Amino acid sequence: MSLLHLSFYSSFILSCLGLAFHRTHLISALLCLESMMLSIFIALTILPIEAQTPSTTLTPVFILAFSACEAGTGLAILVASTRTHGSDHLHNLNLLQC
């Protein structure tokens, strides 16, 4: 396993662990999701260059577009929950209380 693969795998795994264990604030969950998407985007962009294959696919562009949409939606949810609940703590957001 090369150092490049190890860095992509470790960044993705650390982002998953951060999402799993640090669930106190909504903004920290959003940052973990963004770092996951960033590691996937960089992996899909760099790995075809490393393998010396011509990559004309639009997969990294689609991943980047979905990541931007996810970030916008997450920030809209963050603003709406902060306005209604007064904070961005995840324990305040309970779907059974709606």
UniProtKB/TrEMBL annotation:
It comes from the Eukaryota. Core subunit of the mitochondrial membrane respiratory chain NADH dehydrogenase (Complex I) which catalyzes electron transfer from NADH through the respiratory chain, using ubiquinone as an electron acceptor. Part of the enzyme membrane arm which is embedded in the lipid bilayer and involved in proton translocation. It comes from Accipiter nisus. The chain crosses the membrane at residues 6-22, 29-49, 61-80. This is NADH-ubiquinone oxidoreductase chain 4L. Belongs to the complex I subunit 4L family. One of its GO terms (molecular function) is NADH dehydrogenase (ubiquinone) activity. The lineage of its organism: Eukaryota, Metazoa, Chordata, Craniata, Vertebrata. GO terms for cellular component: mitochondrial inner membrane; NADH dehydrogenase complex; respiratory chain complex; transmembrane transporter complex.
